[in-house]
Write a structure and sequence with these properties.
780 residues, alpha/beta, Rossmann fold, 3 domains, 6-stranded parallel β-sheet, 34 helices, binds pyridoxal-5'-phosphate, pyridoxal phosphate binding
């Protein structure tokens, strides 16, 4: 390795700059990855997603290729460090939150389990946006990350895509996805050569009509106007049309006759953004001479759909006229699909095109795929019982649950070396490939030596995070305080505003001499969608409160509030190992699964959460005594919504503590630091609407959180044992388990073999049919 590195750099490692070492290692990783590519036999998965939040790649690839320790040692010998080397790698900006991170975890697990499965997406030049804070407000700039050496390579292949009657060339870039001791798969990303970052003006503004220049600039361009909404359709179609052409081309090369497409390809539609792949495939098959009915059948057998949300506003519905303008070639297909549905049922809520001429993408997905899955047990139940109940009645066999997971390679091995090593010293290395082995840790629940060491590692991680944050934002934290962390997208349903109200409540309590059992460091990491005003108001209130508290010596002894700028995978990797209390406080029924919750528990944090999403299963895995649960149940919440009689003002008027906290938001102190319009508008939003029902859960949250803080302070052994049992109970949440279930129930992917060029022919010839209806009935 040393010789190889030095040969690439043409000098000794000690003489190399980090940039030179980075480039050399990138070359070595690419060579090693290539050596693990395997030919496909049978069905191959294409995971289509608008987002892949993959995070930095170097360290993770070194771990997966089994050369991390060697490289680490070599660098150390030469007075360099891998940690510093990591700093120079830009984080790919190809995703936004949990959905994109899930896609990235899935790619890792597919490769690790030696399953043939590639990602298909778009190459965004500036990602979502880069966040910084100015005057206690979120400020957005383009997240340029494409400068310098790139993991993705230009394949030289292009696909023609017709948008609004004009032809565009989608260029295919590809990057390697390594598995932990597994195969190498690919992430396929499409881009246009004509995209021009020069058209970005102030912040992240740009001309939304210059499609050839703007198409892949940003992920989720502002859709608060018509042009923005159309731009999303443009983007989605570029992705699915180029993707579908690539898939058909690959399958045909392997001997597919298109009638048997489902024997060669499984396509997973990650949320509704790639839904147009359904009509696009039907259209392409039509061009190749396959009649509509058969094409629709083939596509239904090939495709499966994952639902990620029950928030109605997140289920895409496009005006027919927009689609007619941007993708006129698809409309005849979509109308035929709609007619086919209308022959089957006259229920308006099952139609693809409704009476108001809106095209319901999720409805098309459910009708014309063979599997619809939710992402946590509770979420799937809610889909079946309420949100998608009419669909469930029509197609009970299509519905199944696949509880999300996370890759332990990134979220333990890579982000928490000390803990990984310590676990290995206790139970051996088996947990790295078989996460269920973490259970063995439970045997140490009463071993004081182990518990003490565990807490030492946690403290060291809190210090590391604190140092990192100090370098980044000049903020110093107290590692002996309890670190409560809420990091995730800023959304009202996730209820950062509930945490805000708690912190204000504590402010008053401290002022009145009721001190918390331990000093509290409240850490937030969150981006708000640029056009989402209330979310931005919540950020503003948190930043303003942070300043108010900081200025008050009496309170700042006990509370510190920190917002980590530009929350992304890199930040998450620093924050999560440092967390004591994991804040998972969404309104029950609204968080489909959450995956942050899993990362935190795996790193020894205890969850404070509602019975929502995967929190329910986390509680199952660790037992009620090792998690702090509070708040209304999903049933209660759903009933309140159905009756429509939730009145926030009543709670505000009858609960003096709540009222005191809410009034503080636009009180004198906050106004002395913050913006009146923003703070007032947040307060009005809460008192007048509180659409995500923070008020009914306020008291329960305060009580439960204070209990956690007290346990942490007063009973550190109990706390350490809870932390240990959370780690040992996290095995179920490995994305290896999730992917194995997808494969078993939905994909039935082909075996992979090391196949040389000559043998490939024989493999193709022997490609058998799967010979069974692909629909999944197992989980019903
Ligand atoms: C895991 C992850 C998320 C998802 O967090 P949730 O709490 O599940 O919403 C979002 N962003 C980043 C950077 C992540 O790593």
């Amino acid at each position: 390795m040393k010789a190889r590195l030095e040969a690439l750099c043409k000098k000794s490692i000690a003489e190399c700059s980090y940039e030179e070492i980075y480039r050399a290692l990138m070359t070595i990783v690419k060579e090693e990855s290539k050596a693990r590519e395997k030919a496909v036999k049978g069905r191959k998965l294409y995971y289509i997603s608008a987002e892949f939040l993959i995070g930095k790649l170097l360290s993770n690839n070194l771990i997966n290729l089994g050369i991390y320790d060697e490289v680490d040692g070599l660098l150390k010998e030469s007075g360099k460090s891998l940690a510093e080397l990591e700093e120079i790698e830009p984080e790919p900006s190809l995703g936004n939150g949990g959905l994109g991170r899930l896609a990235a975890c899935f790619l890792d697990s597919l490769a690790t389990l030696d399953l043939p499965g590639d990602g298909v997406g778009l190459m965004y030049h500036c990602g979502l946006f880069r966040q910084n804070f100015r005057n206690h407000c979120q400020n957005e700039t383009p997240d340029y990350w494409l400068d310098g050496a790139q993991w993705a390579e230009d394949t030289g292949k292009t696909y023609e895509v017709s948008l609004a009657g004009k032809e565009y060339e989608a260029r295919l870039y590809r990057l390697d996805v390594t598995g932990y001791d597994g195969r190498t798969n690919k992430l396929n990303l499409f881009d246009l050569d004509t995209v021009d970052e020069g058209i970005i003006s102030e912040g992240i503004q740009f001309d939304k009509t210059e499609i050839d220049k703007n198409l892949t600039l940003f992920l989720y361009p502002d859709d608060s106007d018509d042009e923005g909404r159309k731009l999303r359709i443009y983007q989605q179609y570029l992705m699915v049309s180029a993707g579908a052409q690539m898939i058909l081309e690959e399958c045909e090369k392997r001997g597919c006759k298109l009638h048997d497409l489902a024997d060669y390809a499984a396509i997973q539609i990650n949320d509704t953004h790639p839904s147009m792949v359904i009509p696009e495939l039907i259209r392409l098959l039509g061009e190749k001479g396959i009649a509509f009915e058969e094409a629709a059948e083939i596509v239904t057998k090939t495709c499966a759909y994952t639902n990620h949300t029950i928030l109605a506003e997140a289920l895409e519905k496009w005006p027919e006229s927009y689609l007619e303008e941007v993708v006129p070639q698809l409309m005849p297909v979509i109308r035929k699909l709609d007619e086919a549905v209308k022959e089957k049922t006259d229920r308006e809520d099952l139609a693809i095109i409704d009476k108001g001429h809106l095209v319901h993408m999720a409805n098309m997905d459910i009708h014309f795929t063979h599997s619809t899955n939710g992402v946590a047990a509770l979420h799937t139940e809610i889909l079946k019982e309420s949100e998608l109940n009419q669909f469930y009645q029509l197609y009970p066999e299509k519905f199944n649950n696949k509880t999300n997971g996370i890759t332990f390679r990134r979220w333990l091995l890579s982000c928490n070396h000390e803990l990984t090593e310590y676990i290995e010293s206790l139970i051996g290395p088996g947990f790295k490939k078989d996460a269920s082995e973490l259970k063995k840790l439970a045997a140490y629940g009463d071993d004081q030596k182990v518990l003490k060491r565990l807490m030492e590692i946690k403290t060291a991680n809190k210090k590391k995070f604190s140092d990192w944050l100090f370098k980044k934002q000049g903020v110093a934290l107290k590692p002996d305080s309890i670190f409560s962390i809420q990091s995730k997208r800023l959304h009202e349903y996730k209820r950062q505003q509930l945490n805000l109200l708690y912190l204000i409540h504590q402010y008053f309590e401290i002022k009145n001499g009721h001190l918390p059992a331990a000093p509290i460091t409240a850490v937030f990491g969150a981006k708000a969608a640029p056009a989402y005003i209330t979310a931005k108001n919540i950020i503003h209130a948190l930043l303003t409160l942070s300043k108010v508290v900081e200025k008050d010596p009496e309170v700042s002894k006990w509370i510190q509030i920190v917002l980590v700028e530009n929350y992304n995978v890199t930040a998450a990797e620093k924050m999560i190992p440092a967390c004591d209390l994991s804040e998972q406080i969404s309104l029950a029924s609204k968080e489909a699964s959450g995956t942050g919750n899993m990362k935190f528990m795996l790193n020894g944090a205890v969850t404070l959460g509602t019975m929502d999403g995967a929190n329910v299963e986390i509680a199952d895995c660790v037992g009620g005594e090792n998690i702090y649960i509070f708040g209304q149940s999903s049933r209660q919440v759903i009933r309140l919504y159905e009756k429509g009689d939730y009145c926030a003002r009543e709670w505000y008027e009858t609960d003096p503590n709540l009222r005191r906290a809410v009034d503080f938001i636009d009180g004198e102190l906050m106004l002395s630091e913050g913006d009146e319009g923003s703070l007032r508008s947040l307060k009005n939003e809460l008192v007048g609407k509180d659409w995500f029902q923070t008020f009914p859960d306020f008291n329960a949250y305060v009580v439960r959180k204070n209990q956690a803080v007290t346990d942490y302070a007063v009973n550190p052994e109990k706390w350490a044992k809870m932390a240990l049992l959370n780690i040992s109970g996290a095995g179920y949440f490995s994305s290896d388990r999730t992917i194995a279930e997808y494969n078993e129930d939905i994909w039935h992917l082909g075996e992979t073999e090391e196949v040389s060029g000559i043998e490939e022919e024989a493999v193709r010839a022997g490609n058998g049919h799967l010979g069974q209806d692909e629909t999944d009935q197992k989980n019903i």
